[in-house]
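Researcher: I'd like a structural prediction for the single chain below. Treat it as a standalone chain; there are no partners to consider.
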Amino acid sequence: MKTNKRESFIMTGIALLVIAGVFIAIGLSQPRIYTDSTQNAVTATEKDAKGDNASKADSKSEKAQTTLPDYPLNINTATLEELMTIEHLGEKKASAIIEYRNHIGKYTSVEQIMEIEGFGEETYKAVAGYLTV
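Model: Treating it as a single chain, here is the predicted structure.
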């Protein structure tokens, strides 16, 4: 009887480890989205100079400025700033997407970003889930 109980505990432990491993793998495989937090940086002396009311107003405006866009982004209407919130898309690649959009008129599929110089299959796979037409 003790052996069955011990085996049951061991099997439960192994199952929990496997489940934890799956969740970790899923979490690590998701692309990361970054925002530019340097735009909202305010030093302590600036806050003191503005006073309490100005600090509260700054806090509200900072929260409004750091909200992420809704994904997936439409590459036919997305702004440079919106595109730059996606990992693997810095200013250069985001600008290239917009320049190519202006050149062709309108994207008909997300796959068309691979036609842009500097965009390979790896970059496409990393950002495709965040884009739509």
